[in-house]
Design goal:
By secondary structure, the protein is of the alpha/beta class. α5 packs across α10.
Length: 475
């Protein structure tokens, strides 16, 4: 299997492709009854379709769908007989290609697709254009920044997809252009979805257990270029390699001085050099949250916005006023010269690297579920910047071992405890290590589900513990 982060030589071309309106089956099985699945079932019922909903556990959502006429099935194991007479299957993001439902549908020749794909098929003539964002990290920041830019330009817009209301409820809503965050899961289960322009921000090994390997993961991301315009991170070798296999028109962005046809950075400013001459958009220092990775996100958002004609002045206005989403490298408190930062959204090493690169002296709070991803490179790269580390969660020992190899003299606290209450100890240990000028950074490089319901709950618990510790000096 190909795993070095480069595109396979056998990878098929992507975009532009014709995207004729595809029919929606009369008898549809919806797998999963959480937010996306419930929304799909509701829309299909409104269309008069015969809908069956399958989930492993009963819920108020499922009961509500049953009351509306859906046949609801609750079972631990999927019965292939549920596919009898079914025309199509709509899969929630939690169902990977190797799930028995997906396998049975494939063997029976039944089309399976995702909620965004259903939303795309629901679009009527004159529906809003889509500008789509994908990548291993930075999707939500870029998507919400893009939505802010579109709104600053006077366009009716919203940030949707993995965030906001389900796309199926907004497919024909009161919008001109929508900013759509798409995961690799959602893109995998798509075939007609073709945004006006799509950006791949970066690629790193993630979700390989779901996709079955890096090539399948990258292949899913490339589907965002199906509409024919590809916004490409020229500083990410894996994205550049993937872009070699697309026929879409490429609009590149880089943190270096841009060449003609690119977006980039020159003389401390974001620059659009896709026209006859370079145009300054705004100062690098206007970008929030701080950090090179967020400058790259802003460049991607600007490149996408320009594909629907947004003026540079409106892009600059929105970037300057943009308010960062929670849990994404956000400083929330300061006391005694020590800054406390919540980057709980960093659920893999690639995301954590972006935050670790932004500070000079760090007390690193990390740990959780590594999902089989190696942290050795991350630790070897950033250990010289660390004052100390505080480790929690299921795979804390793996991170501790990496720190012992690469920074044997670094003070490390490895904390036991399986729930959010351990955060009080985390804050106390981190404060004990920190010195004036340091940043206490929660950037876990791991998922949160071993201890918390979500990365948001993890970040909130960390912030609450820190504020309780430093009291009235909290920011």
């Amino acid at each position: 299997m190909h795993t070095d982060g480069q595109a396979s030589a056998k990878r098929p071309k992507h975009g532009p492709q014709a995207s004729p309106q595809a029919p929606i089956g009369e008898r549809v099985l919806v797998a999963g009854a959480r937010v996306a699945g419930t929304a799909c079932a509701e829309v299909l019922l409104d269309l008069g379709k015969t809908v069956t909903v399958y989930d492993k556990s009963d819920s108020e959502r499922l009961q509500g769908l049953a009351a509306r006429g859906a046949a609801c099935v609750v079972a631990d194991d999927f019965d292939p007989a549920l596919l009898d007479g079914v025309d199509q299957v709509v899969l929630s993001p939690g169902f990977p290609p190797h799930h028995p439902i997906a396998v049975a549908a494939r063997e029976a020749g039944i089309e399976a697709y995702s909620e965004p794909e259903l939303a795309w098929r629901l679009r009527e003539p004159g529906a809003a254009r889509w500008l789509a964002v994908t990548g291993t990290n930075g999707k939500t920041t870029t998507t919400t920044m893009l939505a802010a830019i579109l709104e600053a330009a006077g366009l009716r817009s919203a940030a949707l997809g993995n965030i906001g209301v389900p796309l199926v409820h907004a497919a024909n809503g009161p919008y001109d252009v929508i900013a759509v965050e798409l995961s690799s899961y959602q893109l995998h289960w798509s075939s007609r979805l073709a945004p006006t322009a799509g950006a791949v921000l970066n690629l790193a090994h993630d979700h390989l257990d779901w996709h079955g390997g890096y090539d399948a993961y990258a292949e899913a991301k490339a589907a965002v270029w199906r509409g024919g315009k590809a916004v490409v991170n020229l500083d990410d070798p894996a994205v550049v390699a993937l872009a070699k296999y697309t026929d879409a028109a490429i609009i590149g962005f880089t943190l270096d001085r841009p060449e003609p046809g690119q977006f980039g950075v020159a003389l401390g400013h974001l620059v659009d050099h896709t026209g006859e001459r370079p145009v300054q958009i705004c100062a690098v220092d206007d970008v929030r949250p701080a950090g090179a990775h967020n400058v790259a996100n802003a460049l991607a958002a600007a490149a996408l916005a320009r594909q629907v004609g947004v003026a540079h002045e409106r892009i600059a206005e929105a970037i300057r006023s943009y308010v960062p989403e929670p849990h994404r490298n956000v400083a929330f408190a300061e006391a005694g010269g020590v800054t406390w930062v919540d980057d709980s959204k960093a659920t893999n090493p690639h995301a954590a690297a972006a935050a670790l690169a932004a500070y000079d002296s760090i007390v690193w709070v990390a740990g959780g579920q590594l999902k089989g991803v190696d942290v050795d490179d991350l630790v070897s790269r950033f250990a010289p910047k660390m004052r100390a580390a505080v480790l929690i969660g299921q795979d804390r020992a793996e991170i501790a071992d990496a720190l012992a190899r690469h920074a044997p003299d670094l003070p490390v606290a490895v904390l036991d405890g399986g729930d959010h209450e351990v955060m009080s100890d985390v804050a106390a240990r981190a404060a004990g290590f920190a010195q004036p000028g340091d940043t206490v950074l929660l950037s876990p490089a791991a998922a949160s589900y071993d201890m918390f319901d979500s990365y948001a709950q993890r970040g909130n618990a960390f912030a609450a513990a820190a504020r309780a510790l430093i009291g009235g000096e909290a920011g």
